[in-house]
Amino acid sequence: MKHTKLLLTLLSAAALTISCKKAETPSQQLDKVQAKAAEAAQEMKDYTFAQRAEFTKQMGLQLAEINQELDQLAAKIEKSNDAAKAEAKPKLQALRDQTAQLNKQLDEVKNATESTWGEVKAGFHKGVNDLKASFQNARQWVSDKIAP
Length: 148
Prior knowledge:
By secondary structure, the protein is mainly α. It has a single domain (25-145), classed as Up-down Bundle (Four Helix Bundle (Hemerythrin (Met), subunit A)). The protein has helices spanning 2-19, 26-44, 52-78, 82-110, 117-145. Helix 2 (26-44) runs antiparallel to helix 5 and helix 4 (82-110) runs antiparallel to helix 5. The longest helix has 29 residues, at 82-110.
């Protein structure tokens, strides 16, 4: 039941995003990505070892959405001035690196045993929180340097 609600929420958000194709500022895009990271952090607290497959599936979907948002943000940054682009590229790469690290950690979650479940899940949770903090920093930078 809980997972059905989550799936319906994600589908509704995707439908809303598709239907509302107005231009978003980079800051708004970062807000969305940070919200998704926060949602992932909250959801992972509720999974038991027996629900490991569902956990990895949901976290994989959320990481894919984050990567998609990062691609959209990168496209917007490419349209900014050269100085902003040069400064933004390492910041975007750092976010991509963190997301790649979370993908590796998600592989560890898939291979976790019942005895390592808590530790592996906690490590993934820390990675999501770190990504969330990085998005906060990036959002502030975008707000200061690129967004009108």
